[in-house]
Amino acid sequence: MVNKKNLWFLTLFSLVLVLSVYYITMPSELLMTNNGNTEANIDVDIEEASIIETLKQEDDNNTLDEINKYKETISDSESTTDDKNEAFDAIKMLNQISSKEELLEEKVKTTHNLDSFIKIDGDQIRVVIDSDDHSSSLANDIMRTIQSNFDTKQYISIQFK
Questions:
Q1: What CATH number was assigned to the domain covering residues 50-160?
Q2: Cβ contacts of 117 within 8 Å, gap of 6 or more
Q3: Does residue 107 register a pLDDT over 90?
């Protein structure tokens, strides 16, 4: 049976081997740039990610980490049935919350034509809006739009970036 260390070693060794063969078989013209100079001047345009995209990516990573933790509990043979059920329910809840957040973000986008990041934590909802307009009337409209999707009172905070 192959253990994890051996599998990682074989994977990395295969990668190094493939890259070595690729490097050796590359035409020498590609290695020489700027008429024989070994220094290459490469212009790279890097777009700065918006704060909204960064927050969404960070939240997605955190959610995936939590889901993976719960999946480990489910697949662990030493976990009790109750632990597995709780982990399954937690995964289900995380997926429902993520879906609700995406739905609310889409609603804010269609209603107010604004990019947003929404994080639901119990009855507290954090909203980050990418807008130059920082008016309290816009914040109130967004709060009403979000609250209309819930039966119970939610504590909604709006932050403009």
A1: 1.10.287.4300
A2: 51, 52, 55, 56, 59, 105, 127, 128
A3: yes
